[in-house]
Amino acid sequence: MKKGLWTLAALSGLFFLTITTGCNSGGNKNGTAPAGPKKDTVLISGMQFQPANITINAGDTILWINKDIVDHNVTDSTKAWTSGDITANGGQWDTVPGNSFHYLCTIHPTMIGSVTVNPKK
Fold first, then answer.
1. Is 10 helix (H, G, I), strand (E, B) or coil?
2. Mean pLDDT across the chain, nearest whole number?
3. What residues contact 59, with CB distance under 8 A and at least 6 apart?
4. Separation CA 13–CA 3 (nearest Å)
5. What pLDDT is recorded for position 3?
6. What are the tens digits of pLDDT across the range 61-111?
7. Cα distance between residue 25 and residue 14, in whole Å
8. Backbone angles phi, psi at 59, to 5 degrees
């Protein structure tokens, strides 16, 4: 009977050790999982990009949501690319930018902003 109790205690301890240390596998120094890409949002409302200037990490997605009553677009300031028209009242467009850039709405050129992309670490 004594031997059975020792075996049960040993197995219980092993189980507890596995549970408490196994949760940290693949994490960083402080035991949390590394952060993955996230989705950032820019609202288009009141004839403005909100926020107009945003900083993201490489690999993150930006979701642009048009809450205005008119169409808008997101166009690189060099006009190398454009989102095309993002329809009024809830139209959306998303992108995963590779580099930092300045942008504007070519329909309403006073609407401007910038995206700063932090490189991967």
1. helix
2. 82
3. 36, 37, 96, 120
4. 15
5. 55
6. 999 999 999 999 999 999 999 999 999 999 999 999 999 999 999 999 999
7. 17
8. 95, -15
Q: Where are the beta strands (DSSP E) in 14-68?
A: 39-45, 48-50, 53-57, 61-66
- Which pLDDT score, from 0 to 100, does residue 90 have? 95
Count of C-beta atoms within a 10 Å radius of residue 2: 6
Residue type at 35 in one-letter notation = A
- What's the DSSP call for residue 35? P
pLDDT of 29 above 60: no
Retrieve residue 114's tokens.
């910038």
Amino acid, res. 108? H
pLDDT of residue 24: 45
DSSP 8-class letter at 2: H
What tokens were used for 76? 């690189």
Give the DSSP letter of residue 32: P
Q: What are phi and psi of 62, to 5 degrees?
A: -110, 125
